[in-house]
Design goal:
29% of the residues lie in helices and 24% in strands. The chain has 446 residues and is of the alpha/beta class.
């Protein structure tokens, strides 16, 4: 992996790990990144997980040859990045340790020593001269631990970003960055959006050409894409329009309602509909989806005068991570005394800027005509479609020239348009089958 002529990658891949931080599944493993900046003086950026100490020290020796490092920069004290500080000091006793004051306190707690004779304590704006490279330190408290610092190299324009811009997955596996970075962000950093915003502001005037995180690939192309995503995630903005339905179902009746709602949403022009069974899906994936889309439907049964455990766990994950700025709808089921909608709304009561739908779907044991009509009404509300005829109207578009109607629910199969295709998703070359005019000559039906 090439970073620059003077900056070398010395990290490791972990394919033995099944759960990162004891809870996040990592089917493609994990990378623990470390870097060497080689100049008149040499700085090693962070260490790696305890199980890879020998490999990491060998990597250092391979890139340095007969030279010795002058500094170990400790940006983050979480053990997957700090576990080999002791072995580093044993091998390189003359090296200094560069870290924040809180990091040295944590070293005392982890290792029984704060390395007082080796300390170089840095804070916001402090610099370290290596030769041609000058390192500038950026404090990043609670991104996502209190001792965190980031480091900017002025020569090669590299930001060493600690856990920020990291993702799940080893570096020898090709996979989409955004999906696993989003799951990583909202699982691990999501609570600290305000603090991430503060760091982004600190770094906004730096000329950053490469980002070197502690997990995941080095980023050096289209950095605006990654930075914009981090800005969206940390400010709790909507990333994509869509409806995510999270549900639990004991005997299948709530599941049946959810599947019916999903069909109705698609028929009424919803751009994206995602359905997640909380008992079976990876919880971190579902949390990721909740923060990705602008609308969330929570569907569950009343259970012990409360809600089903997986739904309670899911909502706790949302509230712990400052879920906000979304539209939320409820579907509740109960054979007697259903209270699920009330409980879920109370759990979300401290979330900011939540808009609740007027329609709450109430199922008593199984779907009937009344609850199916409520599903119709909820689908219309979530899609922004008016319901003028007791639940019978559907989204339609009328040709202004000849009066032919395009019905979203029915589509136009004879013209190759599948049922449920939203008007805006029709092909650009779509024309009225009667008079031949284009889409621009259609209006939404009243």
């Amino acid at each position: 992996m090439f970073i620059s002529n003077d900056i070398k990658y010395i990290g490791v891949n972990d394919h033995a790990l099944d759960l990162f931080e004891g809870q996040y599944i990592v089917p493609n493993g994990m990378a623990y990144n470390s870097y060497a900046i080689i100049d008149e003086k040499i700085a090693i950026m962070d260490s790696v997980d305890k199980n890879f100490g020998e490999e990491w020290l060998a990597n250092i020796e391979n890139v340095l040859g007969d030279r010795q490092p002058d500094y170990l920069v400790v940006q983050h004290m979480e053990p997957d990045h700090s576990a080999n500080i002791v072995s580093f000091v044993e091998k390189y006793p003359d090296a200094k340790i560069v870290a924040s004051s809180k990091a040295f306190t944590m070293m005392k707690n982890f290792f029984g020593t704060d390395y007082a004779d080796k300390q170089v304590v840095v804070s916001q704006g402090d610099t370290l001269l290596l030769g041609e490279h000058t390192l500038t330190f950026i404090t990043a408290p609670m991104v996502h631990w209190p001792e965190v610092i980031m480091t900017y190299d002025n020569k090669d324009k590299v930001l060493f970003s600690a856990d920020a811009f990291g993702k799940f997955g080893a570096l020898d596996v090709e996979e989409d960055w955004a999906c696993e970075a989003r799951r990583y962000y909202f699982g691990i950093v999501g609570k600290y959006g305000v603090q991430v915003q503060t760091v982004l502001k600190k770094a906004q005037n730096l000329d950053i050409q490469t980002i070197c995180p502690l997990h995941g690939p080095v980023l050096n192309d289209n950095l605006e894409y990654y930075i914009n995503l981090y800005d969206t995630w940390s400010s709790y903005k909507v990333e994509e329009e869509g409806v995510m339905i999270a549900y639990t179902s004991v005997y299948g009746n709530t599941k049946k309602a959810v599947e019916l709602l999903a069909d109705k949403l698609r028929a009424n022009g919803a751009k994206k509909v995602v359905v997640n069974d909380l008992a079976r899906e990876d919880m971190a994936e579902v949390v990721e989806d909740a923060f990705r889309y602008d609308k969330l439907v929570l569907a569950t049964t009343t259970y012990n005068a409360d809600i089903f455990p997986f739904m309670r766990e899911f909502i706790n994950h949302l509230t712990e991570r400052n879920f906000q700025n979304r539209t939320v709808a409820f579907i509740e089921n109960g054979s007697w005394a259903p209270v699920a909608a009330k409980v879920m709304k109370e759990m979300l009561s401290k979330c900011k800027n939540i808009e609740y739908t007027d329609t709450v779907v109430k199922i008593v044991s199984a779907l009937n005509k009344d609850s199916e009509a409520q599903l119709d009404k909820l689908a219309y509300e979530l899609c922004g479609v008016s319901d003028n005829n007791g639940g019978e109207s559907k989204m339609k578009y009328v040709c202004d020239v000849c009066g032919w109607e395009y019905d979203v629910e029915a589509g136009s199969p004879e013209n190759g348009i599948a049922p449920g295709t939203a008007f805006e998703d029709l092909p650009e070359d779509f024309v009225c089958p009667l008079c031949g005019v284009g889409k621009e000559e259609f209006s939404k039906a009243d």
